[in-house]
Amino acid sequence: MVPAVTSRVDSAKALVAAASREFGDSLAVLTSFQREGVVIIDLVMQAEIRVPVMTIDTGRLPAATLEMIETIEARYGITVERILPDPNEVAAMVSQHGRDLFYEGIAQRSLCCNVRKVRPLARRMAGMAAYFTGLRREQSESRAAVEAVDRTGSPVRISPLADWTAEDVAAYSLAQGLPEHPLYSAGYTSIGCDPCTRAVNPGEDERAGRWWWETDADKECGLHFSPDGRVERTVDVFLRDVLTQAGSAKQGLSE
Ligand code: SF4
Fold first, then answer.
1. Position 224 confidence tier, pLDDT thresholds 50, 70, 90
2. pTM of the predicted model, to two decimals?
3. Which of 75, 90, 217, 248 is the most buried (most CB within 10 A)?
4. What is the pLDDT of residue 220?
5. Which atom of ligand 1 lies at the shortest distance from residue 194's CA?
6. Pairwise CA distance, residues 24 & 235, whole Å
7. H or E segment at 28?
């Protein structure tokens, strides 16, 4: 019997190739250098698809992630594109709410993710047709319905590992000798910004270490899934004030 991971690898490779045929140059890899992201980069590089590999450098990344960027650049001979937040928007947000505003509530945390991640990505992706992510359904409840190809938004989101298990990812990584983010060996199972991520305890959800002080919110930053309506409205109010002070256009409040 063919092991499941083999067929999933074949399916992922087929999807990567199909995406390249459909979207050509208007395609990118978006990664934060977790295990899944490194698998995606490897699949794309092995297929010799020359599309930009991008990461969002929020300004709050752990040093180990910055090391991973260099490791990936050296392994594949590429330059990772760093998507940066607007410095004026960051300055306005920090002056209004403080640098560590995310500990104050879900709306403040969403504001920070919006300014440091969602808006910079939306600016960079404007006009782009599609991007690859390493999302897997098994990662959390909020990701349980992830489609391999999600055409509901723009750009199209392609998740070749949507049906992979954590064991599939580990097996592929081992087989290909892929580099691993150093924080995994410190007990992390999901890795984001330094102040918002911790190691997890045995038996905890894979994303339990993200914004661990929040008890009733999805462990999502708004890049792939929107916060609920009540939080979204509060974030919009905060964001309007930030953009006014920053002198940014009012557009993008619901990006
Ligand atoms: Fe801000 Fe934390 Fe979101 Fe990073 S993960 S953008 S520091 S709230």
1. low
2. 0.87
3. 90
4. 65
5. 7
6. 36
7. strand 27-30
Angle at 197 between CA 92 and CA 38, to 5 degrees: 105
Q: Is residue 71 classed exposed, middle or buried when 0-12, 13-18 and 19+ CB atoms within 10 A define those classes?
A: middle
Backbone φ and ψ for 102, nearest 5 degrees, come out as -60, -20
Which residues, at least 6 apart from 56, have a Cβ–Cβ distance to it below 8 Å?
A: 30, 32, 82, 83, 116, 117, 120, 121, 223
Residue nearest to atom 3 of ligand 1 (CA): 113
Mutation test of ligand 1: which of 34, 112, 239 has the most ligand atoms closer than 8 Å to its C-beta? 112
Q: Is 221 known to be catalytic?
A: yes
Count of positions (residues) in the chain = 255
Q: Does position 55 have pLDDT exceeding 70, yes or no?
A: yes
Question: pLDDT category, 142, cuts 50, 70, 90?
Answer: confident
Asked whether the beta carbons of 54 and 83 are under 8 A apart, the reply is yes
Q: How many domains does the chain have?
A: 1
Residue 224's domain spans which residues? 3-254
pLDDT for 139 equals 81
How confident is the prediction for the chain on average, in pLDDT?
A: 89
CATH number at residue 182: 3.40.50.620
Q: Classify 29 as helix, strand or coil.
A: strand
Residue 144 structure tokens: 């349980």
Q: Say what the pLDDT of residue 252 is.
A: 46
